[in-house]
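Renewal narrative, Specific Aim 1. Our central claim is that a sequence can be written position by position from structural information alone. The example that follows is taken directly from our test logs and has not been curated for this report. It begins with the structure tokens describing the chain, in the order in which they were read.
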């Protein structure tokens, strides 16, 4: 349901829903039939196998409040997805995680010896739970500190606008790092 609420106006083929929700095809087909029977979703056009949110759904606001606006993922769930990806020194969330549509990224990960494939796997898992594609940035610690001290636009946009720090190592205290420059 979150997939359709967060992607209004977009349509999805059944196989894309299976991939994004990380649920088996039989379960997805059953849920699609159920959601279509209550007019939550509709087929995009006759004969098409693409599904889209029904903008005339009577309880859209209530479901959005329940499924999108409420905190559906706790901080520990997010952190657990990135436990074994290297020496993570900083995790910052913004965007979809703090209900801010104006953020450039949803997730920032900084660390050393980071395993990008494991990070991407963790991100895909979060995307399946949330129902929306995440925009993220990954930096090695040295590069992040360099960008921070050079007032890199992306880094400044993340840190100067609403965000929440979920994990911050002692050696990467943002206020001290910025003053060292």
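The sequence written for that structure reads:
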């Amino acid at each position: 349901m979150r997939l359709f609420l967060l992607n209004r106006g977009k349509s999805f083929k059944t196989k894309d829903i299976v991939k994004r929700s990380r649920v088996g095809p039989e379960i997805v087909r059953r849920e699609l039939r159920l959601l279509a029977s209550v007019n939550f979703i509709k087929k995009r056009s006759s004969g098409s196998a693409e599904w889209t949110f029904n903008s005339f759904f009577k309880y859209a606001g209530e479901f959005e409040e329940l499924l999108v606006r409420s905190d559906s993922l706790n901080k520990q769930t997010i952190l657990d997805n990135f436990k074994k990806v290297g020496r993570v020194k900083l995790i910052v969330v913004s965007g979809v995680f703090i209900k801010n549509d104006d953020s450039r990224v949803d997730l920032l990960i900084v660390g050393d010896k980071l395993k990008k494939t494991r990070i991407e796997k963790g991100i895909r898992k979060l995307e399946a739970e949330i129902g929306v594609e995440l925009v993220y940035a990954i930096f090695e610690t040295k590069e992040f500190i360099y960008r921070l001290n050079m007032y890199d636009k992306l880094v400044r946009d993340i840190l100067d606008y609403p965000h929440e720090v979920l994990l911050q190592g002692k050696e990467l205290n943002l206020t001290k790092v910025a003053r060292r420059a």
